[in-house]
UniProtKB/TrEMBL annotation:
Coiled coil: none annotated. Residues 348-481 form the GGDEF domain. InterPro entries: Biofilm_reg_signaling, EAL_dom, EAL_sf, GAF, GAF-like_dom_sf, GGDEF_dom, Nucleotide_cyclase, Rev_trsase/Diguanyl_cyclase. Signal peptide: none annotated. Residues 490-743 form the EAL domain. This is EAL domain-containing protein. It comes from Paractinoplanes aksuensis.
Length: 743
């Protein structure tokens, strides 16, 4: 394991150096000492900047380049034969730190340590580079980032933050410095730092803020990142998001509009290249046009936060560099190092299994984190029991595991291992004295020596795992190249979807719901359409699953709810006779949000729509896979006075027990039954049976997909109350249905 004093020595030696050359030499000396190396060389942009054990002018450039490229693991020098290893340095000036020693090869653990040291060096050099660049820019152009007389001031604030990072002041203290600097420089009313929760990256919290009312700040704790408004979107999309008219934005948060937040801008904060939070600013009471200089300043300070967090988390990770503290399995860093050994030119090749638990979040939420930790430990033990002595199992984070099988080069050898793991994890776990069942989805990929890079093979295994999830979970899939093509399309569509939320590219269509005996329109179902600027109309079946997977269904669903209730309330104000109802679909992801009840109540009150005029439609499978919190939330929604419907009834796992247990008011008969109600006696009997079931339970019935008069006659004759379908009208634009309602 890594000795704390080695780490502390390296951090202090590098961070305390005032310039690049001093930091270079300190890093080389400390790295050589930490790993017992006889020679150490630091190369930046292809040139040698520091060396130990070799004169700088005698450094053999070509052999070192071969080591840096991973094509050589030894060095033949006049002074002897050295085992060699290296670690790359990223950032604005790329480089490599190379070590050699005569007493034997470096272990995987030592290579992990070297990479951690290289990462610290990279951050320190990046800090020095940023300070120097900002100083030079300020001297050359007094209007830094476009601000007429603030160049020097901006530089001084940034330099102060950089010095705090270099001295490794506590992270909360650095947060406070950034908040104060950004508020003063941009002249905004509110600044906040939001970070993802370490134990659940789908949740985020405001960890520091200035100018945010205490009541609003208290509500920003462990909220789903998908319902985090502009801040959440900046994290999900990993890009700056600027909104000038916040109140009309589809992802506006009611608690923030309630305190008259007018304009908002958020920039992502990253750790190791991944968005883990956001730096958000806003104005109250007056609208702000976010000009380019303001965006640049916000992004610059977000980068400083990124540097501080990356530095702190690198230090934390290096103290746990090799073994996962919970399960005792290898960490991601050690696992990847062993992958490199297997996939290198002198390795044997390997297969990689990416193992992701199904429904772990349900267990963790329902039984508690202690039970979740016990489950992860049990999973680790079972995975380990399925492997050979030379294989490596690792916990990558959360409920993600990986397995390395050196020397396994085809599916024939890897698949039996995947099957053993699947079988082992299907057996019950004893958690808190009760049996708990889970399953797993596994992706399998393999590579010969020097055939694929580590990151590439991990991506292949990850893609295969997602394919297993798409095909029903509790199974394995072997990587195929077509998976990568589909993934690239998926990524492009996801990026478009995030932009669509901010650009208001969604529209609603309304399909009439008709009383089958009188022909009167009694309500409408609101159906979303995406008007893509290049692809035209994107059908819901193409983007709703993606919206649910990414969490974007939360802001999209809230917009649908507010838009539909407002529009129907307007029609009801003009309409004589019974007011219309409006049906809105609610996904399982939305139902998991604790804020859903407040969102629905707020939408009804803002629109001025009576609660009994709103119908929320739920899928049957959602009720079957429910948790205790689901039933509680449905009860709270019912308490508002609205009605609940089961959509596509009969296509899932229908059960009288669910109909009795859940506060359902309406059954919607799936189109697959309606299609054959005239021609197939069995379908007719089932359809009429569902209608009679609804009547017996005092539930309304709505038949979906009515397309011709024969279906209407059969359903009306069977006492079905309501229906919708192309026989009456296709989903219409707001203007078209307005013409239908008010000819």
């Amino acid at each position: 394991m890594l000795a704390t004093d080695q780490l502390g020595e390296f951090l202090s030696a590098v961070a305390d150096r005032p310039d690049g050359p001093a930091a270079h030499h300190a890093a080389v000396e400390c790295a050589a000492r930490a790993l017992g190396a006889d020679i150490a060389v630091l190369m930046i942009d292809g040139g040698v900047v520091a060396a130990i054990g070799l004169p700088a002018d005698k450094v053999p450039a070509h052999p070192l380049a071969e080591v840096a490229a991973g094509r050589r693991s030894t060095l033949e020098l006049p002074s002897g034969r050295y085992a060699a290893t290296h670690a790359t340095i990223g950032g604005s000036a790329t480089g490599v730190l190379i070590l050699g020693r005569t007493r034997g090869p470096f272990t995987a653990e030592e290579v992990c340590l070297l990479r951690g040291l290289a990462r610290v060096l990279e951050l320190s050099l990046q800090s020095l580079h940023m300070i120097e660049s900002e100083r030079r820019y300020a001297e050359e152009n007094g209007r830094l980032l476009g601000y007429l007389d603030q160049g020097r001031r901006v530089f001084e604030e940034m330099a102060a933050v950089q010095r705090a990072i270099g001295r490794r002041l506590p992270v909360p203290q650095i947060f406070d410095m950034v908040l104060a600097a950004v508020r003063d420089l941009l002249g905004v009313d509110m600044v906040a730092i939001n970070l993802l929760e370490p134990d659940d990256r789908t949740l985020g919290s405001t960890v520091a803020a200035l100018g945010v009312p205490p009541g609003a700040a208290a509500k920003r704790h462990r909220i789903p990142i998908a319902s985090g408004g502009v801040s959440g979107l900046a994290i999900l999309g990993d890009e700056l998001v600027a909104v000038e008219d916040y109140a009309s934005c589809p992802i506006a948060l009611p608690p923030m509009t309630a305190i008259q937040l007018e304009s908002v801008m958020a920039a992502p904060v990253r750790v190791n290249g991944h968005a883990v939070g956001s730096l958000t600013v806003g104005t109250f009471g007056s609208r702000r046009v976010w000009e380019k200089p303001a965006k640049e300043i916000l992004q610059a300070f977000a980068e400083h936060l990124s540097l501080a967090l990356t530095d702190a988390r690198t230090l934390e990770a290096m103290n746990q560099a090799f073994l996962d503290s919970l399960t005792g399995l290898a960490t991601r860093a050690l696992f990847q190092t062993r992958m490199e050994e297997a996939l290198g030119p002198t390795g044997l090749g390997a297969a990689v299994l990416f193992v992701d638990l199904d429904r772990f979040k349900v267990v963790n939420d329902s039984l508690g984190h202690a039970a979740g930790d016990a489950l992860l430990t049990g999973v680790a033990d079972r995975i380990q029991s399925c492997l050979r002595d030379g294989d490596t199992a690792a916990r990558l984070g959360g409920d993600e595991f990986a397995v390395l099988l050196p020397g396994v080069l085809d599916a024939g050898e890897a698949v039996p291992v995947a099957q053993r793991i699947l079988d082992a994890l299907r057996e019950p776990f004893d958690l808190l004295g009760s049996e708990t069942f889970i399953s797993s989805s596994i992706g399998v990929a393999f590579s010969g020596p020097d055939q694929h890079a580590v990151a590439e093979l991990m991506v292949h295994a990850d893609l295969a795992m997602y394919q297993a999830k798409k095909h029903g979970k509790d199974r394995f899939e072997v990587f195929e190249p077509a998976m990568q093509e589909a993934f690239q399309e998926h990524i492009a569509l996801e990026a478009d979807l995030r932009r669509a939320v901010v650009r208001h590219e969604f529209e609603l269509r309304y399909q009439p719901i008709v009383h089958l005996h009188t022909g009167e329109i009694t309500g409408v179902e609101a159906l979303i359409r995406w008007m893509h600027p290049d692809k035209g109309i994107v059908p819901p079946m193409d983007f709703i699953p993606l919206a649910e997977e990414t969490g974007m269904i939360v802001p999209i669903g809230e917009w649908v709810l507010r838009e539909a209730t407002a529009r129907v309330a307007q029609w009801n104000a003009r309409r004589e006779g019974p007011p219309l109802t409006v049906s809105v679909n609610i996904s399982a992801v939305q139902l998991e949000q604790a804020a859903l009840v407040h969102v629905v109540d707020s939408a009804l009150k803002s629109a001025g729509l009576a609660p009994d005029r709103l119908v929320l439609e739920l899928t049957e499978s959602l009720l079957v896979d429910h948790r205790a919190a689901t039933l509680e939330r449905l009860g709270a929604l019912k308490a508002l006075g609205l009605r609940l419907a089961i959509d596509d009834f009969g296509t899932g796992y229908s059960s009288l027990a669910y109909l009795r247990r859940f506060p359902v008011d309406i059954i919607k008969i799936d189109k697959s039954f309606v299609d054959d109600v005239v021609d197939e006696p069995t379908a007719a009997a089932l359809t009429h049976g569902i209608i009679q079931l609804g009547r017996a339970l005092e539930l309304s019935t709505i038949a979906e997909g009515i397309e011709h008069a024969g279906q209407l006659t059969s359903l009306a004759g069977g006492n079905c109350e309501l229906g919708q379908g192309y026989y009456f009208a296709e989903p219409l634009t707001g203007a078209a249905i307005s013409d239908l309602l008010f000819p």
